[in-house]
Design brief:
By secondary structure, this protein is of the alpha+beta class. It has three helices and two strands. The protein has one domain.
């Protein structure tokens, strides 16, 4: 299982989007990695 800190490399920060002062967290790289995406879904579903 991947540590949460390691998952951060799959989330890109986009500063000043959609407006100045906002940091948008782009998860597109995470969605492109099938095994990582599956793992994230599994981690999120454990709460329920």
């Amino acid at each position: 299982m991947t540590a949460p800190e390691d998952l951060k490399k799959y989330v890109r920060d986009v500063p000043d989007y959609p407006q100045k002062g906002i940091i948008f967290r782009d998860i597109t790289p995470l969605l492109g990695e099938k095994s990582i995406f599956r793992e994230v879904v599994e981690l999120m579903s454990r709460a329920w």
